[in-house]
Structures are given as structure tokens and as C-alpha cells.
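Support reply, case 0932

Customer input (verbatim):
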Amino acid sequence: MSDGSKALLQFPGHDAAYLLFRQGDLDAFESLFRLHQRAVYGWILRVVRNPAAAEELVVETFWRIYQARARFDADRDFAPWARRISTRVALDWLRARRPEIELDDESLAVLPAARAADPGVAAEIRMKTARAFARLPATLRVAAVLAVVEERPHKEVAEALGISVAAVKLRVFRALRLLRKDLERQGIRP
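Our regenerated output:
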């Protein structure tokens, strides 16, 4: 577990700090921000796959967290609540993007290379796969990226998306089915 993930799980003396945060105390909010910023960034980066966008979305996430502070249940952990808000921010960003995004070398570099005899063929397959992923509806793409690519537990993905585990499984199934069809249209047999 990374330091950021550990930060999302614990906050020393959190009861008092959470209550102060709910009441609008800026010092308590700043403490939560400093403690959870890296973990929220990592989570958003998993979803959007764009470091520059993830940095901006962290700011948006914490702005929304601060605006929603009155709805935060101080008896519960901050981490799942922050993860759910950050997931919604990331989904909003993905939905606002064009359906087909241009992929740069940095985006393609995060995809694992296929074991093929011809590196050119492997690069073409990675590019077509990335484009097929980019064409998925945002809700399906996020579920597939988190559950399949990032190998996050279905329960964690469900909490972040605010849906049931069964709904996560269904979204992943649909995403994989659409990916398979898209790749077959592009001449790739998955």
C-alpha cells in the first residue's frame, strides 16, 4: 500500500478535525488536503490517464469537497468520500472530452507492450487498443480501467463510483464486449 493510500485510510485525531472541517474550519481543510492530496491525485490519474489533467482535477475535487463539507459524515472515514467525489470529477472531465481523443506518445507509453515478434505490429495493436478504450462511454471506460487495467477490487471501484459491485461487473463486461467488437472492426482478433 502506498503512502498516499495509507493517508486515505487514517487521519490522527480525525473525529475533532472532521467536525472542524464540517464547520468550515480552513486549517482542518488544509490538513485534510495535505494529507490526502497525493492519494486523490493517484486515484484521478488512474481514471483520466493524463497527469496534467489529474493535477487540475485534484484542485477541482478539493473545491467540491470543501463545498460539500456540510454533507460529510464525521463518524465515517474521509477516504471513501473523497474517492467518490474525485471519481465524479474525473467522470465529468471524461464526459466533457471529445468522444475520440488524440493519443500522444505519453498516453501510449502507459500501455503494456504485447509480446510480438514485430515491434511495429505491437505498437499498432497498442494504438488501436488505446483508441478503442477512448471510444468507450466514460462510465464503462472508468469501470474497465479501474477493475481490469489497474486491478482494483470491484468493491473499491463500486464505492468510488457510488454503484453496486454487480453494476461494476456489468459495466466491465459491457466495456470488454464493446472493446472486442471495436478491435475486431479494426482487424484485430482479441
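We compared this against your earlier run and they match. Two observations from our side: The two ends are 32 Å apart (CA to CA). Residues 105-185 form a domain with the Arc Repressor Mutant, subunit A fold (CATH 1.10.10.10). Please reopen the case if you see a mismatch on your end.
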